[in-house]
Amino acid sequence: MREIFRQDLEQVGDDLVLMAQKVRTAMSDATAALQNGDLARAERVIASDHEIDQVHDSLEAQCVTLLARQQPVATDLRIVVTGLRLSATLERMGDLARHVADVARGRYPDLALPPMAKDLFDQVVTAVNAVANDVVDLLEGHDLALATRVLEDDDKLDALHKETFRLMLAPSADVTGLTAQQLVDITLLGRYFERFGDHSVSVARRIMFLVTGDPSAHVEAVQS
Question: N or C of the chain: less Cβ packing under 10 Å?
């Protein structure tokens, strides 16, 4: 019986990694669609979002069943509770990738981002995809050093998010004649990417809690 329980706990970890991999792919495709006006990629992200939702629903049901039937304690309890929390966080990250794809699809055949925003958002895209990759590695290896790097990467995304506001308020924005729709798109996209980084911080802090048992990391994750 204990061996079956152990296998169930391992399955929770495997499913979290699977979710993170799907989120990584979704964000990679969504950002490519945004940069290149790739309609097929945008539609693929939107259509496949339900796959992330399905893994989330399965994980949630599995964790609730483990809590009810096995009544885990100590480290096992942390694994199950953290699994519940992480699955919800990853599901939201998948939604954010879908939102980016929605913007890209909605402006097709034009690009959502005007030329003046290209360089800044190229940096954002690089940073957000690095975060998505780190989240996968973090869930696979539970490396505390990598968790710290995720927190640092989020600081970069926050700084870039602030730059989007400076971009829109700069005198050059008036010169190039940004439309109302472009202003809305820049604002929304900046927010989507910033929130994606925030959720990655939540993942990192929950892994810290899982590994160390330090409740302060868990509290900060809930507040972020």
Answer: N
Average pLDDT over residues 108-113: 94
The answer to whether the beta carbons of residues 66 and 80 sit under 8 Å apart is yes
Average confidence (pLDDT) over 165-191: 79
Rounded Cα distance, 93 and 192, in Å: 9
> Where in the chain are the domains?
2-223
Instruction: Report the C-alpha gap between 115 and 193 in whole angstroms.
Output: 19
Residues 47 and 102: beta-carbon distance below 8 Å: no
Please identify, in words, the CATH class of the domain defined by 2-223: mainly alpha
Q: Is the pLDDT of residue 173 over 90?
A: no
Q: Which residue has the tokens 């919800």?
A: 88
pTM greater than the 0.85 cutoff: yes
Q: What distance in Å separates the CA atoms of residue 91 and residue 16, rounded to the nearest whole number?
A: 10
Residue 70 has pLDDT above 70, yes or no: yes
37 close to 104: Cβ distance less than 8 angstroms: yes
What stretch of H or E contains 125?
A: helix 115-141
Using omega within 30 degrees of 0 as the cis cutoff, is the peptide bond preceding 109 cis? yes
Query: What percentage of residues in the chain have a pLDDT greater than 90?
Result: 69
Q: Do 187 and 209 contact (CB within 8 A), yes or no?
A: no
Residue corresponding to tokens 């990738």: 97
Total H helices, total E strands in the chain: 8, 0
Q: How far is CA 165 from its chain centroid?
A: 22
